């Protein structure tokens, strides 16, 4: 391996200076994946031909001495919920086990247009439903820091691939925390942009009003570089926002001195692991030492966030997943003799237990008799949660919290208790419900060496400040970790 655990900038420079070639890099990464992934299981599909063809295009440009695009030759992985033309895309589900999409999602197309090389597709919870990657129909992912533990979810493969150096960067998706929580568990940076910042075109829908695409990277700078490439209006997604995309690398160069950082008391209560608390509080103290002004705040509707999220997300999922009927996509039961039986059996055999649980919950919440009591009520509480943030952001520039209440838990520890699993999302679902951007950045480790993440939430479309604070956390964490 010529570039052990490299960053985007280092990879691009090595190619531009002709110290290596994209082709050599791709081959090295694929070799590493084949040697090391059987222990981790981050990858579901490798696309070697597509990667080598793209590497050749990059190498030809480098050989001609052309100016290289921002991700030239950077090997990346894509969570298997984003469609890739000609490359199997499963969403971690048996029902899409044989699905080969006819087009590329916008985020993937933009990565490739910027010179990135897609190595393959990454394991995840089925339809991105989960917090541990144990809901994948293809088996769990293991945390590279401790293989008896989960990598977090649902973008567990995306986080584990970066943490183990099997990709320089990856894309994940976040509906209730699925980029930030696995980033926290695996000790990498995970950024959920503002809702609408990145096109969802070609993202297999879980809960459309909550789904976000974002990067998982080794460094805050890499997240800044990647976000700039994938962000911006896309005519193929009417919810993508027409808001200018700044140069985030300029933002992270600014000091945090004078920034007001809110610390919400509701995120430091019961259920927060003591080592996580100590590490996050120490990181906040280091931000204060750099001149940030720490402001105690309250986000009073936080206790309602998890139930609100699980009503809205399951309701939207029940509608989105109605399209899997054995006719249009993927798996069709060979056992069926009538049309109704084909629908029933294809869905029964194709979906896993958690997906079925959510379709039932969501269908119930949307049913005529219960719509007002559940779905409508949840929408109202969602508005209150969003207002909590609006009020807070009148006083502070960003909010800092733990990303998750605990470090990575053991594989199997929560699989029999879906409610305990849902509570792992307590600090992340609020950001999705309010549509604000959030990042998880490593801030320390437990005594046994498990990574701990700090979350930073910001104003709508102010990823610049979120990244800037994250950079300060990363710098100060590097100082203490050496
Ligand atoms: N863990 C949450 C859930 O299971 C979030 C998933 C996600 O963000 N995709 O729904």
List the helices and strands and how they pair.
Elements: H1 8-16, H2 22-40, E1 43-46, H3 48-63, E2 75-79, H4 106-113, E3 117-122, H5 156-163, E4 169-174, H6 180-186, E5 189-192, E6 212-217, H7 220-230, H8 248-252, E7 260-264, H9 274-289, E8 293-297, H10 305-320, H11 339-350, H12 353-366, H13 372-395, E9 398-402, H14 418-423, H15 429-434, E10 438-445, E11 451-458, H16 463-481
Parallel strand pairs: 2-3, 2-4, 7-8, 7-9
Antiparallel strand pairs: 1-3, 4-6, 5-6, 5-10, 9-11, 10-11
| Low-pLDDT ranges | none
Major beta sheet, strand line-up: 1-3-2-4-6-5-10-11-9-7-8
Report mean pLDDT, rounded to a whole number: 96
Derived from helix and strand composition plus strand pairing, the structural class reads alpha/beta
Assign a percent range to the helix content: 40-55%
Distance between the termini: 24 Å
């Amino acid at each position: 391996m010529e570039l052990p655990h490299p960053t985007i900038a280092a990879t691009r420079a090595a190619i531009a200076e002709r110290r290596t070639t994209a082709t050599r890099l791709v081959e090295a990464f694929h070799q590493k994946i084949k040697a090391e992934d059987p222990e981790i299981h981050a990858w579901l599909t490798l696309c070697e031909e597509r990667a080598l063809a793209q590497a050749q295009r990059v190498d030809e440009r480098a050989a001609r001495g052309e100016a290289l695009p921002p991700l030239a030759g950077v090997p990346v992985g894509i969570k298997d919920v984003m469609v890739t033309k000609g490359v199997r895309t499963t969403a971690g589900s048996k029902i899409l086990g044989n699905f080969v999409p006819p087009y590329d999602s916008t985020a993937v197309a933009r990565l490739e247009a910027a010179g990135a090389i897609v190595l393959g597709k990454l394991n995840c919870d089925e339809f991105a439903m989960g917090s541990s990657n144990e809901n994948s129909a293809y088996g769990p992912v293991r945390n590279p820091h401790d293989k008896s533990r989960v990598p977090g979810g649902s973008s567990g493969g995306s986080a584990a691939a970066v943490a183990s150096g099997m990709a320089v960067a990856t894309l994940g998706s976040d509906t209730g925390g699925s980029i930030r929580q696995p980033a926290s568990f695996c000790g990498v940076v995970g950024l959920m942009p503002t809702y609408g910042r990145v096109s969802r075109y070609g993202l297999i829908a879980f809960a459309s009003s909550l789904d976000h695409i974002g990067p998982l990277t080794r460094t805050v700078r890499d997240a800044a570089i990647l976000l700039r490439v994938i962000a911006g209006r896309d005519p193929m997604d009417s919810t993508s926002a027409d808001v200018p995309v700044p140069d985030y690398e300029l933002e992270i160069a600014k000091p945090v001195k004078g920034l007001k950082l809110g610390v919400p008391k509701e995120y430091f209560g019961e259920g927060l692991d003591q080592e996580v608390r100590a590490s996050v509080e120490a990181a906040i103290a280091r931000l204060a030492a750099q001149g940030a002004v720490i402001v105690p705040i309250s986000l009073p509707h936080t206790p309602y966030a998890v139930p609100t999220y699980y009503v809205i997300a399951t309701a939207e999922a029940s509608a989105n997943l109605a399209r899997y009927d054995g006719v249009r996509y993927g798996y069709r039961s060979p056992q069926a003799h009538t049309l109704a039986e084909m629908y029933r059996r294809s869905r029964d055999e194709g979906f896993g237990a958690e997906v079925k649980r959510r379709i039932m919950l969501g269908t119930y919440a949307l049913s005529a008799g219960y719509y007002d009591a559940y779905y409508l009520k949840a929408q109202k509480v969602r508005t209150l949660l969003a207002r909590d943030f609006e009020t807070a952001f009148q006083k502070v520039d960003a909010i800092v919290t733990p990303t998750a209440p605990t470090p990575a838990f053991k594989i199997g520890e929560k699989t029999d208790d879906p409610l305990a699993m849902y509570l792992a999302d307590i600090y992340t679902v609020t950001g999705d419900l309010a549509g604000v951007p959030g990042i998880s950045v490593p801030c320390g480790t437990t005594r046994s060496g498990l990574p701990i993440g700090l979350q930073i939430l910001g104003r709508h479309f102010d990823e610049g400040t979120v990244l800037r604070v994250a950079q300060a956390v990363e710098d100060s964490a590097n100082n203490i970790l050496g």
